[in-house]
Amino acid sequence: MSYKATMHLDIVDKIYDFGENTRESITIFVGLNQNAFDANKTLSALHSGYLKGKLPEIEHQGAKKISLPEFNACQFAEFICWIRSYRWVPVPIHGDLDCLGERFWQPGSLLRAPGFQNAAMDDIRRWCKDSKAKSWPDSKDIDLIYRLADPRAKLRRFAADSEQLFKNWPALTTEVAHAAEEDWNGTYPWDDENRERYMQDEVPLDQLWEEHILARRSIKEIKQAGKNNCLRSVIELDHLERDEGKGQKKAKTS
Length: 254
Prior knowledge:
The protein is mainly alpha-helical and 254 residues long. The protein is 55% helix and 6% strand.
């Protein structure tokens, strides 16, 4: 398991077991049929810039639910599963199994969830490496990518770097021409050494949780509560002081 996956799951465990309002969730109604999802507020805010901005507004109104009719329920289920377990839903819930990585990338864009987008991109890269990209991207992939992603999206860049397919998307001609000028040094777009070309800018999850903790209490308050045997405070203090002095530097003035 990668360091990133281990950190992700470690923080999930700490939030669920010892975090602030561990049992407090928000009900999110998704899609035209309003499928209901119970999502942990802290995890939702850490992983989605959209939900992070939405939650204070909902709480101010005294509401306990969010409605996202523009989202696909199956895709949102993948997001909820990923933030909890760092994996996709382990049962087939999609009627159309084609282009799943691309489909996951797009709701990540809407949710402003770069970590989720990067997980989707890594999934596409793994598939390309395993299959040596003999059939990716095909016309269906390109059609979906160019409909869902904006012109500067790194998903479009990855598609352009990986294949030459111009029939329905003339803009691909220019992007592939640019890709042809790259010096690949014997590598392929999906190889690990080229990974950073296609990753979204992402704040590390441990830093996001640190900021979340310190937005609610000062380091002094956390230490005092820890001395009084508050397990949540002990766990949070351990996280803040994971690098010597780091928690002190970023603590807000008490």
